[in-house]
């Protein structure tokens, strides 16, 4: 029996909740239209100003880059579960640079539309306006949020920016969760019985639960698309909440409390700090994107000079990141791993005579070590993170002495070089060679993780985001 697709299930639930809410609201009429219009305008503005989210949040960027530039070489007929393939197109350059090289906010910055999220959550947790009870219910909350998000998404859809459907689905379901938890309890007087600090703490507790719900809704589709373990994906989503997530939760709670006390004038006043934080994070994302593009350009130096085949560094980087994620590395570690994999061959620029096809895995250990040290020295001169230089330097060390990122780069590089030149069935033979080489050359846990990644990506067709 085929397992249900979490992405389709989440989208279906969100669509059903949205349609029911719109129908109920249209039948009963809009309660407190001024309040609904004010919050709708705030959410609309937040959605219009959200940054473009690439697959960095969902985990499909690395897979897409790997599949387009690497998986096609070894992608068909993975006989024993690990792959054979035709070997055709081995020199085809990948079109992606892997997870984390997009231009979106990236890991750690969290919510793409923090102002819209805070406005939606505050409307779901609104019980009074200037001391007077509000009369909107759960269905009106969802209907207003959905209408504002749909209008705010029109420019993004027109420009083809970001996975809008998943963004809308998560927004609808998280707001539905918050409204269902708050509105019935408030109407029964539960929150009125908890005045002062207790009321604020209850709101914050609901917002934390809502944030956890949103993390699960983000990790489930990523797990479905990439077949990566759900646990590490969920942990990355939870770590992402530590970016602007606390500001979103705090602003949502304060907005609800302030509007209850002083009225709708509190909305623009409280929106300004979060909007400034959003602009700051957007600049940070732009700086980080430039930094990554610089690294990618440095990585292409060996290709332009003819020392390595076109696309080799990108394929190794994308596959290394996928292996690191399978082994449970955290996002900062994955970033270091990816950057080191991109620049792992830069030491070859010091060679007078290029290595044939740039294949360093077959060189004597002393020569591999010399090239790695030269590469680390170059990386240190570029101002790239010192940890990246360490991984580049130690990729040729004896396997038991290497840190895990260096073991991954070493194994993936060897696999790519062996499979690229082995012709039909090269992927399977390359994996067997890595296994037979023993733990002294390639870490067994890394080789098995590599086999799992190749099996998932080559047996599973890409799913559009």
Give the number of DSSP strands: 2
Element string (H = helix, E = strand): HHHHEEHHHHHHHHHHHHHH
**Major sheet: arrangement of strands:** 1-2
Low-pLDDT segments, ≥5 res: 53-109, 459-465
Tally of alpha and pi helices: 18
Instruction: Name the helicity range.
Output: 55-70%
Overall geometry comes to: elongated
Query: Radius of gyration, Cα only, in angstroms?
Result: 25 Å
Can you give the mean pLDDT? 77
User: What class do helices, strands and sheet pairing give?
Assistant: mainly alpha
**Strand portion, in percent?**
under 5%
Alpha-carbon distance between the two ends: 24 Å
Biggest sheet character: 2 strands, antiparallel
Write up this protein.
By secondary structure, the chain is an all-alpha fold. It is built from 18 helices and two strands. The protein has a two-stranded antiparallel ribbon with strand order 1-2. α2 packs parallel to α10 and α16 crosses α17. The chain starts with 5 loop residues before the first helix and ends in a 6-residue tail after the last helix.
């Amino acid at each position: 029996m085929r397992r249900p697709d979490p992405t389709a299930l989440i989208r279906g639930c969100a669509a059903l909740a949205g349609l029911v809410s719109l129908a109920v609201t249209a039948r009963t009429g809009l309660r407190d239209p001024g309040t609904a219009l004010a919050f709708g305008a705030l959410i609309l503005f937040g959605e219009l100003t959200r940054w473009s989210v690439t697959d960095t949040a969902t985990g499909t960027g690395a897979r897409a880059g790997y599949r387009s530039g690497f998986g096609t070489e070894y992608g068909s007929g993975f006989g024993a579960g690990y792959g054979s393939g035709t070997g055709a197109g081995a020199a085809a350059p990948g079109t992606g640079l892997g997870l984390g090289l997009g231009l979106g906010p990236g890991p750690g910055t969290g919510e793409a539309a923090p102002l819209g999220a805070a406005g939606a959550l505050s409307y779901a947790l609104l019980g009074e306006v200037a001391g007077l009870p509000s009369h909107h219910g759960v269905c009106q909350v969802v209907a207003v949020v959905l209408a504002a998000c749909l209008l705010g998404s029109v420019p993004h859809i027109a420009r083809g920016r970001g996975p809008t459907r998943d963004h809308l689905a998560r927004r609808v379901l998280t707001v539905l969760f918050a409204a269902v938890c708050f509105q019935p309890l408030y109407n029964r007087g539960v929150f009125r019985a908890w005045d002062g600090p207790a009321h604020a703490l209850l709101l914050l507790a609901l917002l934390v639960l809502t944030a956890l719900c949103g993390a699960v809704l983000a990790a489930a589709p990523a797990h479905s698309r990439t077949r990566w373990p759900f646990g590490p994906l969920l942990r990355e989503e939870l770590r992402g909440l530590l970016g602007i997530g606390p500001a979103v939760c705090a602003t949502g709670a304060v907005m609800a409390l302030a509007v209850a006390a002083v009225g709708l004038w509190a909305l623009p006043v409280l929106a300004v700090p979060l909007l400034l934080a959003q602009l700051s994070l957007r600049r940070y994302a732009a700086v980080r994107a430039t930094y990554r593009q610089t690294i990618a350009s440095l990585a292409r130096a060996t290709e332009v000079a003819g020392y390595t085949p076109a696309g080799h560094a990108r394929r190794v980087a994308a596959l290394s990141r996928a292996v690191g994620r399978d082994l449970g590395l955290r996002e900062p570690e994955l970033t270091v791993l990816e950057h080191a994999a991109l620049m792992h061959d830069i030491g070859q620029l010091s060679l007078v005579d290029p290595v044939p096809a740039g294949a360093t895995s077959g060189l004597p250990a002393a020569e591999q070590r010399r090239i790695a040290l030269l590469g680390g020295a170059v990386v240190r001169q570029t101002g790239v993170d010192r940890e990246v230089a360490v991984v580049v330097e130690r990729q040729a060390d004896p396997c038991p002495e290497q840190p895990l990122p260096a073991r991954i780069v070493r194994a993936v590089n060897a696999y790519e070089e062996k499979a690229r030149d082995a012709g039909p069935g090269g992927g399977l033979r390359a994996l067997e060679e890595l296994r037979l080489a023993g733990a002294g050359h390639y870490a067994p846990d890394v080789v098995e993780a590599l086999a799992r990644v190749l099996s998932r990506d080559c047996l599973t067709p890409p799913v559009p985001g």
